Amino acid sequence: xxxxxxxxxxxxxxxxxxxxxxxxxxxxxxxxxxxxxxxxxxxxxxxxxxxxxxxxxxxxxxxxxxxxxxxxxxxxxxxxxxxxxxxxxxxxxxxxxxxxxxxxxxxxxxxxxxxxxxxxxxxxxxxxxxxxxxxxxxxxxxxxxxxxxxxxxxxxxxxxxxxxxxxxxxxxxxxxxxxxxxxxxxxxxxxxxxxxxxxxxxxxxxxxxxxxxxxxxxxxxxxxxxxxxxxxxxxxxxxxxxxxxxxxxxxxxxxxxxxxxxxxxxxxxxxxxxx
Length: 275
Known about the structure:
With 275 residues, the chain is of the alpha/beta class. It has a single domain, classed as Spore Coat Polysaccharide Biosynthesis Protein SpsA, Chain A (Alpha-Beta Complex). Helix content is 33%, strand content 14%. It contains ten helices and nine strands. It has helices spanning 38-47, 66-74, 87-97, 115-127, 154-163, 167-171, 175-178, 208-221, 230-239, 241-244; strands spanning 12-17, 32-33, 36-37, 54-60, 78-82, 102-107, 134-136, 150-153, 186-188. Strand 4 (54-60), helix 2 and strand 5 form a beta-alpha-beta unit. Helix 3 (87-97) packs antiparallel against helix 5 (154-163). The mean pLDDT is 96.
């Protein structure tokens, strides 16, 4: 955290949105890899980031998500339960309850997220708090899908909570902010060496092939180094193109495709239409 005074750090709360009711791959974050639920593998990686923050898993009030709360209790992780479909509401109220001054959004479908990427985005935000209302590594994205980190002051999240009206703005939490660059000051962190792997590499979990890909990566790397890095994954995929090909057909697929005509700052080059 060089360059940032610890005494000047705002209270950062990392909110990991999590639910069991995925339509494409039900219970995806509860599936086991290397003997642990996918959710716990991801939380291990998030907690390895060195920036001071408080972590909370924000799940729903639906009974189907009781196991998520149980897993959190077993692993001494804070759990907030809120609105089933309005994730903006869930993020806002979890952050409000914990008196956050800055709020980080990391979805629970990113089990391969690199702690160093989290630190890089948070460091950039902390060093530029006076310049930006929102910082992420997604606008435009350059990291492999599944390294999603977004951070904003609580007051900006509160504006979105009070003003966002469209269903996709509530469901995806932050588009009300980042899709209005004329109103909010948007900062972005890009991948090293000018690389852009956002459409060619997919580390997120939404389909059975994603689970099989992520399982293959953990099976290869986890026992050697539980906190294997993004570089370790990329090196593995260079050696083992058969692993990369497991979910290759879904590279570039994201939620933007369903709202492409409503998003002002997203174009067809940033998504892939499959359905």
